[in-house]
Amino acid sequence: MSWDDKIAFVTGASQGIGRACALLLAEAGARVVVASRNLDKLQSLAGEINKENEPVRALPLALDVSREDSIKEAFQKAVEQFGKIDILVNNAGIARDGLVMRMKRQAWDEVLETNLTAAYHCIQQVLPGMLRRRQGRIINITSVVAQMGNAGQANYVASKAGLIGLTRAVAQEVASRKITVNAVAPGFIETAMTDAINPEVRDKLLSRIPLGRLGQGLDVAHAVKFLASDEAAYITGHVLNVNGGMYL
Ligand code: NAD
Predict the structure, then answer these.
(1) DSSP secondary structure string, 119-184?
(2) pLDDT digits (tens, 9 = 90+) for 62-87
């Protein structure tokens, strides 16, 4: 199956890693549904991908992954427009950091809902079609901290470790239908999520990265594109680290 025949759905595509994934998949030739809460940013992203007088290749959709009704609506619209979804990238994610002793239930719930429960809902939306067509790629964006832990991020780390478990369980459930389910675990990537980190902590983190630089959204996007490709047909239940050697 060539990239031109593939439809990808990327959650949290308005910026950062999700945006880089959408652009790279589109550059390869796939049509992409770019979904997130910020429709303005998505429209400008779609504007970069869509060419005048050519069929639509990027569809911007408003989506709040913490709401099940919003998820159902977005996937319904995506299928109405493109007919199917071949590749799902569960990328939308948030952090609400704090020590577990003082962590409010709301901060716990918001992070688990957005980072983990949403992936389960999105997977349920795409699986029936993938099972029917006996093909599909599901890629969950987890994090290096799912493997190494991180003080002050109990909710985030639990959600990202949960994503790895979800990946492995679903991989086993759907392997017989040639659907692969994998995770990509970025290290420290330069995006809005990491911009807020103070310079001192940043330098300390940098000193722990053997490849000597922070990652870029594109570094992660290349891993996602590979796992979405036909060439990765024999890889499932895998966690692909994109962390500059930060956790070996
Ligand atoms: P970002 O904050 O720049 O982007 C997050 C994206 O998720 C945005 O598009 C945002 O609109 C979207 N999003 C958040 N809540 C949403 C909701 N309720 N509904 C729909 N969309 C929502 O961050 P990023 O660094 O690009 O993060 C992307 C993913 O990569 C996240 O899952 C994050 O946990 C993961 N990650 C990031 C890093 C890093 O260093 N930046 C490291 C490991 C993992």
Answers:
(1) HHHHHHHHHHHHHHHT-EEEEEE--THHHH--TTBHHHHHHHHHHHHHHHHHHHHHGGGTEEEEEE
(2) 999 999 999 999 999 999 999 999 99
